[in-house]
Write a structure and sequence with these properties.
Largest sheet: 5 strands, antiparallel
Structural class: alpha+beta
Radius of gyration: 24 Å
Strand content: 15-25%
CATH superfamily of the largest domain: Glycogen Phosphorylase B
CATH class of the largest domain: Alpha Beta
CATH architecture of the largest domain: 3-Layer(aba) Sandwich
Protein name: Glycosyl transferase CAP10 domain-containing protein
Keywords: Endoplasmic reticulum, Glycoprotein, Glycosyltransferase, Signal, Transferase
Shape: globular
Helix content: 10-25%
Pfam family, one: Glyco_transf_90
Catalytic activity: L-seryl-[EGF-like domain protein] + UDP-alpha-D-glucose = 3-O-(beta-D-glucosyl)-L-seryl-[EGF-like domain protein] + UDP + H(+); L-seryl-[EGF-like domain protein] + UDP-alpha-D-xylose = 3-O-(beta-D-xylosyl)-L-seryl-[EGF-like domain protein] + UDP + H(+)
CATH topology of the largest domain: Rossmann fold
Family: Belongs to the KDELC family.
Number of domains: 3
Distance between the termini: 29 Å
Amino acid sequence: MGRLPRAALPWLPLALLAAAGAPEAPVSAPRSLAWGPGLQAGVVLPVRYFYLQAVSSEGRNLTRPPPGPAQFKVVVKSLSPKELVRIHVPKPLDRNDGTFLIRYRMYESVNEGLKIEVLYGDEHVAQSPYILKGPIYHEYCACPQEDPQAWLQTLSCPTEEPQIAKDFASFPSINLQQMLREVPKRFGEERGAIVHYTILNNHIYRRPLGKYTDFKMFSDEILLSLARKVLLPDLEFYINLGDWPLEHRKVNETPGPLPIISWCGSLDSRDIILPTYDTTHSTLEAMRGVSNDLLSIQGNTGPSWANKTEKAFFRGRDSREERLQLVQLAKENPELLDAGITGYFFFQEKEKELGKAKLIGFFDFFKYKYQVNVDGTVAAYRYPYLMLGDSLVLKQDSPYYEHFYVALQPWKHYVPIKRNLADLLEKVKWAKENDEEAKRIAKEGQLTARDLLQPHRLYCYYYRVLQNYAERQSSKPEIRDGMELVPQPHDDTSVCQCQGKSPSREEL
């Protein structure tokens, strides 16, 4: 690949690229910047992506969309004319701040490599064309990197994840025999939502415990996706597929807490947290099976700040009583708040009194300047998406958290509101009266979320959790009675030939 200038290296904090510039200045294609994991052959992701920063001829980063008719366009094709491959390259996503998000999904692998042309008008941008030497594998190609450390370095994974360190502090060692004795009895009864996994020789085996384990498709698909990319450590563990974290024993109790893996944590539990099934599925199925994902949302954040409706906005199900209070507040203060319940399940008797709001497309949320984030049964899993918009998030105080909350600070990345919503209207009024400060907090939150929620970071996080877990296990994992192999998906439409190996039967 062409050499990137230091300022355009893939993993620079995005906040550094929001330097003030003159938005009316023309774009200089050669001075504009391109960076990101999609410009590296070794980073295999369901959707590959990279970023562009429009830069003026004076060398200043533009902070608003470039003027004039010329647009960025990207062409991704095989280096060899003999290799005809399917690659979906949608239009660049304009993030409304002078930066653009480029995505492409490969449906076949290439042996020779890829040529990526990035153009502004008819001129090449930065170091374009970028040459990525093959082989370059598509998502369903099972060609794992056998050196996990090299894989972590290729992805520029952080060396430390504060939430992982915090979660494992309670578990300096993991007694697998205790887990085998206790977990099925404590959490695997009929109403349980636990799945017992063993990873051995990079194969995934599992047995569901309990009645509510349908969501295992989400844990299956990310573990299989990881195993296609990197050699996983051998380990045996239990994943909780329910909403609520499970382990409430204290560290000093006897017996002590068990390291159950969950999608959501809480202040009074000891579960080890992974990214939620929602953000995981959104990453795996981007540009394919889901309409809202962590990348597409970045180019669909509504009108500019000045043109957004100056109200706080909420839509959602009735999964928490505070959500009903929110609707009542909106009825009494329509000039400050637009809130509605779109489906009644928990409080059906309230529908007649509060009314049922029509469903609204998620991208339309960002027509409003302020977004209210209120818990559902646990943490509201829409929060990552709200953070990636360019509205100010008013976040309810909560005992629940997702894997990335530890990096966020109130009044820097969001505006906090009390659990009982008593200060919500006051905070909305504050935001209206302090528009520049509200805009600054919204932008800081957005930039931080863009960094933390990049798809490659999700893979880093999953691997680090599995790695930490495996290092602490005091006995060898085994394939237990009742476990079945979770097969890698078949891809009959393309041949996958791993470097130095013959194509496997299931890949032909």
